Amino acid sequence: MAAAVHKLFHHGHHEPSEPSAPSAPNNHSSVISQNHQDLQSMESAREDEKRMLVEWADDQRPLSPRQITRDAVDKKVGRSLERLCQDDFELIKTLGTGTFARVWLVRLKNPREADEDKVFALKILRKVDVIRLKQVEHVRNERNVLAAVAGHPFITTMIASFQDHDSLYMLLDYCPGGEVFSYLRRARRFNEPTSQFYAAEIVLILEFLHEKEGVAYRDLKPENILIDAEGHLKLVDFGFAKKVENRETYTLCGTPEYLAPEVIRNTGHGTAVDWWAFGILVYEFLVGQPPFWDQNPMKIYEQIVEGRVRYPSAMSPEARDLISGLCTVDTSKRLGNIQGGAQAVKSHPWFKGIDWDALYHRKMQGPIVPHLRGPADTRNFDEYEPEAEGREAYSEELRGRWDGYFQDF
Predict the structure, then answer these.
(1) Claim to verify: residue 228 and residue 344 sit in the same structural domain
(2) Which residues are involved in binding ATP (predicted)?
(3) N or C: which end of the chain has fewer CB within 10 A?
(4) What pTM does this model have?
């Protein structure tokens, strides 16, 4: 837009000369008229993109697996938008920070009265930090995986992505309930029905990621699971997610207590790592802490590779059997990775009371429904320091070398 404005005000600036041929003024005015039309067209496209966000907020229903796997251009969500920019949003409060990203609660600027309560989470990633911390591939993976899975009922919805000179943006749905981790710490442990409900929603997530998209999530833990306004889960932070399909990958990533043995041994891993982490997660739901823990990470790794889980006497036999099937060192015998895939997990006796179809369509009541003052309530999120001033600029040299890698945004 800046280039168009520049052209508009500077085109045709020249030294006085002999009177022009009659066609020259017409050419000059036609250029001005064309530039004016271009500006109007750009502004109209920008308003269309903002209207699309509002329409999504009005109709936030989950898509069927078939609808989700359609090409991104056919879906209302997961698109890369060309006209949207940070200035279109009012930044309300920081919801979270990382080494190269900050997530804000936002709403559209100057909304109509009917749209004032429509809020979103805007993840802002500074390009210079992404490059400096060697996170380019992880960020690309995150954006592309979120676009592919947008519309799933239990995965954070990336409504749109966009970029400007300095930053990359992912506009996400806002989950006002905060992290499952916080509820688990307050409760110390979840009872069996609560654990089953949340575990079942995670099974549906892993089934879709693995069997429809060939994606390994690789960072399953309570801190990466949020609770939405209706008490359902949303899996967030896809920075380690990777499309592996039937191949193996070797990157060491994840959280120590949740790493699978094959990751620690660096023997190559695939989607089976998520089923191991799922077993650890179910254990933590029921007991209040993961089965393998020590202040020294190396001791944790030794325990994981040994793979001996100790169960409290109060844990039900069905829960023990599920966890032992998931936390099996041999991936060829690991529940979820054996024949039947996710269906073998869904058929386990521990899940016998779950109506999987009703659960997918969010027809079941969540066990923990957050108390909220309104759609923009942030009481379940911590306070954060303001962003530091005087940070490194994204130079033209960096832009020339790296902007091609960000073209998906």
Answers:
(1) yes
(2) 123
(3) N
(4) 0.86
Contact present, 215 and 242 (Cβ < 8 Å): yes
Whether residue 348 sits in one domain with residue 311:
yes
What would the pLDDT profile of 144-180 be if each residue is shown by its tens digit? 999 999 999 999 999 999 999 999 999 999 999 999 9
Q: Which of 196, 357, 347, 286 is nearest to 338 (CA)?
A: 347
Q: Residue 114 has what pLDDT?
A: 82
Q: Is residue 353 part of a domain?
A: yes
What are the beta bridge partners of residue 142? none
Q: Which residues carry a binding-site annotation for ATP?
A: 123
Q: Assess whether pLDDT exceeds 50 at residue 18.
A: no
- 107: domain CATH number? 3.30.200.20
189 shares a domain with 165: no
Q: How far apart are CA 163 and CA 83, in angstroms?
A: 9
Output the domain CATH number for residue 354. Answer: 1.10.510.10
How many independent structural domains does the chain possess?
Answer: 2
Q: Catalytic residue at 129? A: no
Q: Quick one: tokens of 118?
A: 């429509």
- φ/ψ bin of 362: left (φ > 0), alpha (ψ from -120 to 50), beta (otherwise): left
How confident is residue 26, by pLDDT bands cut at 50, 70 and 90? low
Given the residues 88, 173, 219, 237, select the one marked as catalytic. 219
Residues placed in the known binding site: 123
For residue 285, report the phi and psi dihedrals to the nearest 5 degrees: -55, -45
